Amino acid sequence: MEAGDGDWSALWAEKIEKAEKEKRRELVLQGQLTDKKIQQTSSLNPKIYSLTLLNYLEISQSPSLREIDAGIGNLIHLQSLLLCRNKLSEIPRAVGSLKSLKVLDVSVNELQALPEEISQLCDLNTLNVSCNQIKALPTGLSKCVKLAIINISKNEISAFPADFFSDDLDLLSTIVANENAIADISGEISNLSALKNLDLSNNKLTEIPSELADCSKLKEINFRGNKLKDKRLEKMVNGCQTKSVLDYLRAGGRGKGKGKKDSGEKDDSREKEKKKRPDKRQKNRKEEEEEEDLNRMVVRVLHVSDSPTAVTVKVTALVKEVRPYIVCCVVKGMNLKSGNALKRFLTAQIKLHDEICEKRTKATIATHDLQLVKGPLLYDARSPKTLKIVPLGRKEIKAADLVRQLQLEAEEQRKQRKRQNVSGLHKYLQLLDDKENYPCVVDAEDHVISFPPITNSEKTKMRKSTSELFVEVTSSTSLQVCKDVMDSLIVKMAELNKFTFDHKEEASLDLETDPANGETASEPAANENAEKEASPELTVQQVRIVDTDGSLKVVYPSKTDLNMDISNLTVVR
Known about the structure:
- By secondary structure, this protein is an alpha/beta fold.
- The chain contains nine helices and 23 strands.
- A hairpin with a 4-residue loop joins strand 21 (538-547) and strand 22 (552-556).
């Protein structure tokens, strides 16, 4: 049943008052409730601007939000400000007062310009202004000396500011500027000593400066979709790996980089040099190829039609109002038994949750031991009073009781640690606010194995002996977000598996009890996978997502997935 206007107002006021009373450091306002209230009042509740203890504020997915009051400048302790997926037409100049701000995300709005006061944010690490109508970036961004990531994609920007390629930005590692109108890149880009990732695809570039090759840490570039004068280079950027393009630029293009010899040099010495050169080039090329082979990561895609035991996930209509998007796959060949491999994997998953998943507000990853997953699976939304799960490290409990228990634990954390922000699962509770039903993934025996964005089930918990994983990514934002997160996760898994393989760590016993049968994992299970562990290669098996009628909604990975321009990654389809 839909709440009335009075109920919306009460819920809105209660949430803000609760944040004030509990002296919270984090506040998330998003979706239907927030948008409904903004429609009624034409603005945000002014009390928000008095929550001066906040260090994380997100107001997103509210199409009725068209402006932010200058009172935002009062929140001087803010470290993360997310104002994405609204209809903002401008950002107040008062944002320059947020001296502690590290993350600013105003993506997917209707901005045409940014205030120059952004240059006063000396601690700013991440700036995302993608998917707006911005025509020019403000000058002075070089003063943001801690800037590491900037995303200006899908705007109308024609050029970078004159001071942007400054050696003051010696931490800037990622520039995402695809789908703009950028026509020129200064050779001063070589001043960006930390640059690792550069995406300038689908712009109006006609030349790529040779100085780009002087960015010694550059690993990934994308210039596809630009009409370059050098047609050979254009062909290379549309099909070659980063290293090949940089080598071509380093050589000056079409061999121009090699300086001319004095006319007085003898012809015989020139001939001798010519004879020596091919052998040297061939030797260097061979060494480079051998090095590339050693560093290469291989991911093989196993199609649904090639696997008689392929997992299928059926999606009910109820998730549409809660968390509508999901993609899944099976990953085989992961070695988690050696040394700290499992710990590294779980740490990487936490990092992905904090970064690309934006603290689970954008998407949530769940990983399971495939051997303990009983398909087919159902992605459903159920009442908190009926949904039951065995959370990781806990006994079976109803979702409503689990949330209540976590809320009490969060309050206890605040008292014991004498601080307002909380850790663990407790910091994600606000993502369930105002939800009538909770999303869940259910197995063939009607056991809940996943309760996004909060926890997985102990029943399918991963252990050191796990080598085949069932992986799911859910989101309330978009299907593409799910796919992007899954792509990043699989690349990270390939990197970790390669690291484990290269360092030859000793396998350690899995002393945890198997949640399926109560027995301790034994060595035969390890020996069974010994041959697979002799290679870091991963196999990703497709999983079909269908509706209740069995019609296909999505399959991952499809031909358009896992298409990253990563020089040492090979995807075999």
